[in-house]
Each structure stands twice: as structure tokens, then as C-alpha cells.
Write a structure and sequence with these properties.
heterodimer; A: 400 residues; mainly alpha; three-stranded antiparallel β-sheet; 16 helices; 74% helix; 4% strand; globular; B: 703 residues; alpha+beta; seven-stranded mixed β-sheet; 20 helices; 33 strands; 32% helix; flat
Chain lengths: 400, 703
């Protein structure tokens, strides 16, 4: 039955299978985390399961809905989406709910779900960049005509996010740079861009330090702590360092405890020590419960997923399609990667969760919408291929 | 399209970079798992330290015959708080309520004080702030439900993981020494095993398991890996009967207080099986009160005195030296090789039969035995040994001494030893050893080993059952036995125990009063003479069920076995008879009051304490409270704080009308009284805010 369902879906079948496996698996992880959530946050186990199931339902519906459109549709609405996301970001900037000291959330009144505007902004920016890079492809060598107009949306989005969520901002910037790189922006310009950003950052920090009363970068202390703690040897012996990095240490311990076969679903201990284990430390909890073998499969699945997207991106003929598919893939991979690198203690602690797997509402919805768009592109070319196949002899002859 | 080709290469390059990074993650994961390497960029390989720790199991309980706990383990918790974790808004919103709640639970610290402490802790960034030590599990639960604390450890800072188990005897002083304790060896001190807990500690302790602790950022933490499951501690079911024990304890206590005695002990034993039903040991301590300080019943051997005459007659009868109907000439004083032996109080019984001599506890028995065995004293000693009187009983708990019994040729043996032994001097036995001998007489000559433990249970399984152990199948001939049983009955009918005879059933027994050796092995210094009054016997005479010995040591010689110890004995016998013996059906006997304390109503503490001290009733005022509620205990009236809030409707149940009305009116509530006596019901429940009822009447029902 599932097979026939998948057969009926258009687009890349492998992507469909992996996506569904991940989404179903996310229900299992929520099940594993529910007891500790109930203990810490209160509420009933039912509450968390329904909430997550609701998100999953919304995500899948959104994904299926997106499938109805041709890629060109997204090209057309990308401008609107981008400015909508900018509007939401500005709204969040002033009225957002604060979670963990960062105002990143919009509360949607009727369904009482929270929505992270930056999740939408990421996707909108990718689409818009795709559109611009296609449009300006021949003008990219010119600063004024080509490069600056492409750069403006990146700067707006990152600028609006950076104040409350430095890591996401940096991530969005990195993704954008990758897309510019693939989108044939000359190296010289990319380098200049880097240099400019570094200078600006330095200037902002300087300003923050000189005029603390302005509170220009409210989360600066957190960033500093994380970076400082992570890379300074001196701090290692400091009591505060030990306590502040309890999360990171516990994550490593979780991975250690997992061993090859893991402790089994629901039997992990890390979640009892790390409050955010169900999102930011997903990988550690996952390895603890499913072991090294689980990790190998997890990474394998991600790489296959990305590989299929890469193939679609290569196959796509229009620059908008290439950039969009690659951007969506890179976004997912980089989030997963950062989550894993944080858990293995390579990166300082930041809040990037595991795409498709972790508990988290808007992120899952937007990831699913992104996959839907990728499938639209894939469908376009697989349809074309089958049509081409019928007309092969004639075309071949023509080429010859 | 070279542009497309370049793009393709770039896309593949992006993929390769991500794939490499993911593989790196996998490598890092493996490294962490295999070696605990945490820093991939440094050469330092710090393993996550790990250690195996013992995982103690709960100590088992010691139960009485009916599985009522006599010793049990209670968990106590040290409560800490991490005041730095709550969010500022939670902290500000809930802290006042939390402190109020804490202060309500622990009224010795005010809410204000709690608040200052916690705020200071937060300011100082203290992560481990002591809130309260040694709270019970119930209190811990209440605390965890207070505002802020109910957010848990990560959001509310509630730390309740410091657990400690302590041994608790719910019945206080009762049976303390016999139940005993275990003290493991520490440094210079050897391990100490006292009483049942000491002897059966291996069973009680079970076997600790092992679990892994790992060094996490904040110290050693149990990470949940259990290497070895522990074996739960077993519970010891003793043969004690809590009700008999209570009577024994209280009666002994009262007699000791009445006679200002030094110490005393009581043992009650089941005749057929040797299971001990009660052991009480009380000694006067420095503060003038009596406590279980030493297990005299089992561990103190003294000269038994007249109770030993039973053994002397048994020996002489078995050897055919005497007949109980033979008459002898008693005198106030006898002389053996120039050493004088006197009758108690200088009595002169004149010409009496040997049976009468025994019943009246005349020391002429010394002369009879001396005359019977003077040519062959060894025969007498050997005969006594054949009764098993020179051997310890081999108890399951430690500390039983070997009885002292000299024989010809010993350094301490002298020509007059025979006579002195016959009346219970020049021998030394513990009360339990004496009782075991009398028990054998009651049990038709079969000597059983006194035992304290009936079975050992682990969970629902019975691990070990203790069967009665027979030490000697027959200590003497049936004929001798019958004669001696008559003698013991005669003591109660015609002799020294005459006025102890219960009107409900017959007791057989023997009194004894002995001058006790002091620490320097002399019978007392001048002005410091210690006497031991004892009474040993069994009941009912026909088909005996329980045997019992009571011995009380005091200064001065105006204590006698019958009056002092006999009274305890008969009180115990009456109680057991009234409540325990099956053959007794329905006699409208008044229930023995266990406590001779008056009923004290709740009320104004100054009034109550004045009255109690005027009447010489022992009482204890726990705290300096204005209003108190009384609870009688074994020995005194305890006055506890009566919770009366100024803004709340007070609880006046148990008070007199005067106090109740005063309290209600001062809370602004107007009172209507119904009936008389003490308040039994109040129409508005206590604890309601009083403001709600200002001006409205409350009905107090008195009965």
C-alpha cells in the first residue's frame, strides 16, 4: 500500500522514502523524549505527542500541496515570499516571543503554535537568490548591475536575524555564499564580501563593547562565552567553564554510552541531563539510544538524500532550479552537520536542530515544503525524460 | 555549454565537502566511543573517568511475631537548591510563596529568612544551597510540590538526591539492647555486633550491587549502568510479642522507679519451644531515668540466690539423698567451718519438712545439702552439671557468659562451698540461664534453647526457619520432676509467693533475693550493698505455656523477690492471661491500663504544665508554645504545639470550652456551645480563613 502511495507521488522516489522514514522516526524520538519533557516542562505525555503529530500532519500536507505547482511558479512568487519573510522578521524583531533569552518566535494565535520566522526566511531567501542569480547571470561581473542586487537580500535577511540568533544568521550567510559560488559569482567578489563582513562584525563588537548601554548585540555575551570557553585552554580548569559546558560534556558522554548498539529506544540518559536534548542535542541522544550503527545509517541516509538532490540540481537546466534544489539540500545538510558537530564537541554549542527528525514545528514544516519544491523540479525532468524517451529516435537523429 | 559544466563541477565539489564533513562526524563519534577522546584537535587523550561503586541495598527490618516492625530503615533526605537556575520571572513570581511554604513546613525558620538566604544564594551564584537536612520522605514530597520547586531541578533548582538511610525503632527504648545494632570496623575500632541486628547483620544487609559512576562536568554521577544487581536485605521475624513486650517493659519500668532500683530485667519465654516472647532490660542512667543500657538478661551473670535451691533439691532427690517429707531443724543461723550463714531477717522456722523449707526459702537447705554430700562434694557438682547448669545455652546473639560453677580442687573451692552453692551463692548464672532451667521443669524435663528469631524472610520467600532446639531431652527423672513442680506450686500456695497468687489461674515459681557481688568481687562495700530480687516461674500450673523471670537489682536489702519482682511477674502473667491465652474465653476482667497517666485535654500550655507539675505527672513540653495538644506516651505526657493561626480558624477539638471560646473569639468568630465536656466537633473546619466568618457563629459540640 505504502509502495503504491509512493509510486503515485511524483518526483524522486528515493527522496520520498527517506523523507517518510525520517518523519515517522521523528515520532519515535518524541516518544522517547516525552517522559523527560513531562518531568521538566510539565503537561501530559499526550500533549507532546499530539503537538508533534499535528506538526507532522501539517508538514506532510504542505509538502503534498506544494507538489501541485511547476518550478516556474516558485520563481514567480519568490520575490513576494522574500518580502513577506522580511516583514515577519521585522515583526519578530519587535513583538517576538522570547525563548531562552532569544526573541525568535512568532506566536500564531488560533492554533497556539509558535512559528520561527527565520525558518521561512531561509527558504524564501534561497528561492529569491535563485531567481536573481538566473536573472543576473550575465551581469555578475558588474558590481552595480549584478553583484550588489544579489547581495542586498542576503544582507537584509542576515541582518534581521543576527541580533537574536547569530548562529542561524551565520549559517544563512554561509549557505548564501555557497549558492553565490555555484551561481558563478566571481571569486574576487566573494572574497571582497568576506572581508567586508569580517570588518563589519569587528565594528559591531567594538561598538557593543564601547557602549554597553545601547545593548546593540544582546546575545553577544553568550557568543563570547561559547567561543571563549571552547577554544581557550586556560578556561578548561575554571569551575564556571565546567558548569557552562555541562551540556557539551553530557552530549559526548551520551555518545560514549551509546556504544556500538546503543542503549535502546527510550533508555538514553542524556536527555535527563540536557534540557534541549530533543532538538539541539538530537545527535547525542540518537547515538546513545541507537549506537554507532544507528549513526552510520543516519549519516548514510542524509548523504543519499543529499546525493539525490545533487543529481536533480545537476540535471536541472535552469539556474533558478539548480540554485533552489542545491540551496534546500545544503540548508538541510548544514543544519544536520552543525547539530552533529556540536554533539561531538567540535563546534561550540548552538541551537541547530536535526532536519526532519527533531521535535520542532516550523523547521519541520519548512523543510518539508523545501523537499516538496525539490520534488517539483525532479518531477519536471523525470516527466521530460519519459516524454523524451518516446521521442528518442527523432531527437537522436537530429543531434547526429 | 562550458558554464553548465563548471556549475556541475562546483555542485559536486559542494557535495564532496559535505560528505567529508559527515564522515568526519562518524570518525569523531567512533573516537569518542572507543577511547572517550573528547578533543580531536589535541593530542591529550582524556578518557571519561569511570569507576565502580557499591550500590547499597536497603537493610531488612526486624519484626515481631506478628510482623510489626521493631526496627526499620527510614530514608532521610538533605534538600538543597540551585537558586541560579530559575528564570528571573519564575523566581520573582514564586519565591515568596515558596518561602512561605517552607516556613510552614519548618516553622523554626521564618519565610523572610528563607527568602534572604535564597536571594543571597542566587546573588552569589551558589549552585548548592542547603535548604534543610534530614527531612523525611513525606516532607520531601511536600517540598517538591511547593511553588518554584514544583518546576523540578532544571527550572526550579530543587535538589533532593542526597539520601541517607537511618535505622529507626518505632517503639523507642523498648527492646533496644536485644534488637541491638551493627557498627562496622573503622580505623582503630573493631566492628561491634550487638543483639539481633548484630548477629543477623549478614542477612539484614543482603548483598550490595555494583554500578558505574562516571565523571561528568559536575562531579561523579551514576550513569545508570548496573554491573551487578544487589540482593535485597532479608527481614528477621523475631519471636517477640509486642504486646507482652510492652507490658514487661512498662511493669519493670514502674517497679524500678518505685524502688529507685539500679537495674532490672525481664524475660518471658514460650515453655514448649523456647522462643522468647519479651526481653526488657532497664538500667538507671546518670540523669536518673531508666534506659536500655545493657542486656542484663543475657549478659550479666550474678549469684542466683534462692532460685538455685531448685537445682540443689533436684540433685539431692536424683541421688536419693533426701525425701521431701523429711523434717529438719531450721535455725536463724548456721555455721560451716566458722563461717556463718543466716536466715533472711533472722527468721526461725523451727522443725519443718524439706518441702516447707523450700517453700519458705529457708537456708536450712544449705545445711541439708552440706550434710548429704560432705563426704563426696564432687557428686553434687557432677549432678548439677548433668542438668546442664555449667554450660552456656549457645544463644544466637553474642555476649552470653559461661556460668561459674566451682568444683572440688578449684582454687576458689573451699570446705563450705557445698552449703553456699546449695543456696545459690558461689555459682553465677545469667537470668536467662536460670529461666532455661525452670523452663525445663515446666516443660516436663525437656530443656530447650532460648531463641529470639523465628524465621528469616526475603521478599515473600521464607529463607530460613528456626525450629525449637532441644538441649537436653530429660534433665531428671519424672518422679523428681513431679515433686519439684509441686514444690514450686507450693511456694505460691503456702510460701514466699503466697500473696501473688492470681485469682484467675495458678502460677508456679520461686522467689530469690541475693546479695550481689560488686565490681571488686566482694559482697558490697560498707554502705553500698546491692541486692538482687528475682522471681522465676511459669503459668498456668496445669499445662504451662509461658515461663518468666524477673530480676531487679537495688541498693539496700529491703527488696525481696516476692514483693518487687513478683509483682512485675504477676502483672505480666495477668496481662498475658487476659489477652493472649486461648483457653481463656470471656471473663469481664477490667483491661489493664498500660499507662497510668491521666487524660489531658488540649489547651493553654501554662495552665496544663502547672497542673501536671503540681500533680507530679511527668510531662514534656516540646517547644515554648502557647497552645498545646497532649499525647500520652509510655512514661510521660508529651505536649505538642497546637497549630493555631491568627488569620485562620483555629483547631479547638480536644479543648475545654473555656480555651476554645477564648481562641475562637480572639479570631473574631462568635461561638455557640452545645453540650458539655470537651470539644468534639466544630462546625467550621480549622484552617479556613477566619476573616470569612467574622461575626458569624460557630457551633462547638461538646461531649
Amino acid at each position: 500500500m505504502i509502495k503504491s502511495f509512493i509510486n503515485r507521488l511524483k518526483g524522486d522516489r528515493v527522496i520520498w522514502i527517506i523523507t517518510l522514514v525520517f518523519v515517522v522516526f521523528s515520532l519515535l524520538s518524541v516518544y522517547s523524549f516525552v517522559p523527560i519533557l513531562v518531568k521538566i516542562e510539565g503537561g501530559t505525555p499526550f500533549k507532546y505527542l499530539t503537538k508533534h503529530a499535528l506538526y507532522v500532519a501539517i508538514s506532510i500536507s504542505a509538502m503534498l500541496f506544494v507538489l501541485r505547482f511547476q518550478p516556474i511558479f516558485f520563481n514567480r512568487i519568490s520575490g513576494f515570499l522574500f518580502w513577506l519573510s522580511v516583514g515577519l522578521l521585522i515583526y519578530t524583531f519587535f513583538f517576538g516571543q522570547k525563548v531562552n533569552g532569544a526573541g525568535r518566535w512568532i506566536s500564531i494565535p488560533i492554533v497556539s503554535l509558535t512559528f520561527q520566522a527565520s525558518d521561512l526566511a531561509k527558504l524564501a531567501l534561497i528561492l529569491y537568490l535563485g531567481k536573481l542569480l538566473e536573472k543576473k547571470q550575465s551581469l555578475l561581473n558588474s558590481w552595480k548591475e549584478g553583484f550588489i542586487p544579489v547581495l542586498v537580500p542576503i544582507v537584509i535577511t542576515c541582518g534581521l536575524i543576527v541580533k537574536d540568533n547569530f548562529s542561524t544568521s551565520a549559517l544563512v550567510f554561509m549557505i548564501s555564499v555557497i549558492l553565490l559560488f555555484v551561481g558563478n559569482v566571481p571569486f574576487g567578489k566573494l572574497f571582497t564580501l568576506f572581508a567586508g563582513i569580517v570588518l563589519m562584525a569587528a565594528f559591531a563588537v567594538l561598538l557593543h563593547k564601547s557602549f554597553p548601554s545601547l545593548n546593540l548585540l544582546p546575545r553577544y555575551e553568550t557568543w563570547e562565552n561559547r567561543l571563549f570557553n571552547r577554544y581557550s585552554d586556560q578556561a578548561v580548569n575554571d569551575e564556571n567553564y565546567v558548569i557552562n559546558n555541562a551540556q557539551a560534556k553530557n552530549a559526548e558522554l551520551g555518545i560514549y554510552n551509546g556504544g556500538i548498539f546503543g542503549q535502546g529506544p527510550g533508555d538514553g540518559k542524556v536527555k535527563e541531563f540536557i534540557p534541549e536534548a530533543y532538538a539541539d542535542f538530537y545527535y547525542a541522544s540518537f547515538v546513545e539510544e541507537f549506537g554507532l550503527i544507528g549513526a552510520v545509517f543516519l549519516i548514510l541516509f542524509y548523504l543519499i538524500l543529499f546525493l539525490r538532490m545533487i543529481r536533480i540540481s545537476i540535471k536541472a537546466e535552469k539556474m533558478f532550479e539548480k540554485i533552489t534544489v542545491l540551496g534546500i539540500g545544503v540548508t538541510m545538510m548544514s543544519q544536520a552537520l552543525i547539530n552533529m558537530l556540536v554533539c561531538t564537541g567540535v563546534f561550540p554549542v548552538t541551537g541547530q536542530n536535526m532536519p526532519l527528525l527533531a521535535m520542532g514545528g516550523s523547521a519541520m514544516i519548512m523543510t518539508c515544503v523545501g523537499i516538496g519544491i525539490v520534488q517539483c523540479v525532479a518531477a519536471k525532468y523525470s516527466d521530460k525524460k519519459s516524454k523524451d524517451a518516446e521521442a528518442v529516435p527523432a531527437e537522436n537523429m537530429a543531434v547526429a | 555549454m562550458s558554464n553548465t559544466k563548471a556549475t556541475r563541477t562546483k555542485i559536486i565539489f559542494v557535495y564532496v565537502v559535505f560528505a567529508a564533513a559527515m564522515l568526519f562526524v562518524l570518525v569523531k563519534t567512533t573516537m569518542i566511543q572507543s577511547q572517550g577522546v573528547t578533543k580531536v584537535f589535541t593530542a591529550e587523550d582524556g578518557k571519561i573517568p569511570m569507576r565502580t561503586v557499591l550500590r547499597p541495598t536497603r537493610l531488612g527490618d526486624i519484626l515481631d511475631e506478628n510482623k510489626t516492625p521493631l526496627v526499620t530503615s527510614v530514608s532521610k533526605f538533605d534538600i538543597y537548591m540551585d537558586p541560579t537556575v530559575p528564570k528571573q520571572e519564575d523566581f520573582d513570581r514564586y519565591l515568596p510563596d515558596l518561602c512561605k511554604g517552607l516556613s510552614k513546613l519548618f516553622p523554626d525558620v521564618s519565610a523572610k529568612e528563607f527568602e534572604i538566604r535564597i536571594r543571597r544564594g542566587r546573588a552569589k551564584k551558589s549552585r548548592y544551597l542547603l535548604i534543610r537536612k534530614k527531612v523525611s520522605n513525606a516532607e520531601r514530597k511536600l517540598m517538591s510540590e511547593l511553588p518554584l520547586f514544583n518546576l523540578g531541578r532544571f527550572k526550579g533548582g530543587f535538589i533532593d538526591t542526597e539520601e541517607e538511610t537511618i535505622r529507626k525503632r518505632p517503639h523507642g527504648e523498648m527492646l533496644k539492647r536485644t534488637l541491638g545494632y551493627y557498627q562496622p570496623a573503622t580505623g582503630r575500632q573493631k566492628e561491634l555486633r550487638v543483639g539481633i541486628e548484630g548477629s543477623f547483620y549478614e542477612y539484614l544487609a543482603g548483598e550490595p550491587g555494583q554500578e558505574i559512576e562516571q565523571r561528568l562536568s559536575t562531579g561523579w554521577k551514576k550513569t545508570g549502568k548496573i554491573v551487578k544487581e544487589g540482593i535485597e536485605g532479608a527481614s528477621i521475624v523475631t519471636s517477640f510479642d509486642k504486646e507482652i513486650q510492652e507490658v514487661a517493659h512498662n511493669e519493670l519500668y514502674n517497679q524500678l522507679v518505685n524502688h529507685n532500683a539500679i537495674s532490672g530485667s525481664v524475660i518471658v519465654m514460650d515453655v514448649k519451644t523456647g522462643f522468647v516472647k519479651a526481653v526488657a532490660n532497664l538500667s538507671k542512667s546518670g540523669d536518673g531515668n531508666y534506659y536500655e543500657l545493657y542486656n542484663h538478661a543475657i549478659g550479666t551473670k550474678e549469684v542466683p540466690g534462692s532460685t538455685f535451691k531448685l537445682a540443689s533439691l533436684m540433685a539431692a532427690l536424683e541421688d536419693g539423698k533426701i525425701d521431701l517429707e523429711d523434717t529438719v531443724q531450721a535455725a536463724p543461723e548456721y555455721s560451716f567451718y566458722g563461717v556463718k550463714m543466716t536466715e533472711a531477717k533472722g527468721h526461725n522456722y523451727g522443725r519443718i519438712t524439706i518441702k516447707q523449707a523450700f517453700e519458705k526459702s529457708s537456708n536450712v537447705i544449705g545445711k541439708i545439702i552440706f550434710n548429704a554430700y560432705k563426704d563426696n562434694p564432687k557428686q553434687f557438682v557432677d549432678r548439677l552439671k548433668s542438668f546442664g547448669l555449667n554450660l552456656p545455652l549457645g544463644l544466637d546473639i553474642q555476649g552470653e557468659p559461661v556460668p561459674t560453677m566451682y568444683q572440688p580442687g578449684d582454687k576458689s573451692w573451699w570446705a563450705g562451698s557445698l552449703a553456699w552453692m546449695a543456696v545459690g551463692y558461689d555459682v553465677q548464672m545469667t537470668p536467662l540461664q536460670t529461666l532455661a532451667f525452670y523452663n525445663a521443669v515446666a516443660n516436663n524435663g525437656t530443656m530447650v534453647k532460648p531463641q529470639f528469631v523465628k524465621e528469616i524472610i526475603r521478599g515473600n520467600d521464607v529463607e530460613k526457619v528456626f525450629e525449637p532446639v532441644i538441649i537436653k531431652e530429660k534433665i531428671c527423672s519424672g518422679k523428681t520432676l513431679k515433686l519439684l513442680q509441686d514444690c514450686l506450686y507450693g511456694v505460691m500456695k503456702e510460701g514466699t509467693g503466697k500473696y501473688l497468687t492470681s485469682s484467675y489461674f495458678d502460677i508456679a515459681g520461686k522467689t530469690g533475693t541475693a546479695k550481689v557481688l560488686n565490681a571488686d568481687n566482694r559482697y558490697g562495700n560498707k554502705g553500698e550493698e546491692r541486692y538482687m530480687a528475682s522471681f522465676v516461674g511459669y503459668f498456668p500450673v496445669e499445662n504451662p505455656i509461658y515461663s518468666c523471670i524477673v530480676s531487679i537489682t537495688a541498693n539496700g536489702d529491703n527488696i525481696y523477690g516476692a514483693t518487687v519482682s513478683g509483682r512485675v511477674f504477676s502483672a505480666i502473667a495477668n496481662k498475658v492471661y487476659a489477652s493472649r491465652l486461648q483457653y481463656h474465653q470471656a471473663v469481664n476482667e477490667t483491661k489493664e491500663t498500660e499507662v497510668n497517666l491521666p487524660l489531658v485535654k488540649s489547651g493553654y500550655s501554662k495552665d496544663i504544665s502547672t497542673i501536671l507539675s503540681y500533680l507530679n505527672i511527668p510531662y514534656e513540653l516540646n517547644q515554648n508554645e502557647e497552645w498545646v495538644v497532649s499525647r500520652p506516651t509510655l512514661s510521660k505526657v508529651m505536649l505538642h504545639q497546637k497549630l493555631i493561626g491568627k488569620e485562620l480558624v483555629p483547631n479547638v477539638i480536644g479543648m475545654t470550652a473555656k480555651d476554645a471560646v477564648y481562641l475562637m473569639e480572639s479570631a473574631g468568630i462568635y461561638v455557640r456551645l452545645k453540650g458539655y465536656g470537651i470539644v468534639r466537633e466544630q462546625s467550621i473546619p480549622a484552617g479556613e480563613p477566619a476573616g470569612k466568618y467574622t461575626g458569624s457563629p460557630i457551633v462547638l459540640t461538646l461531649r
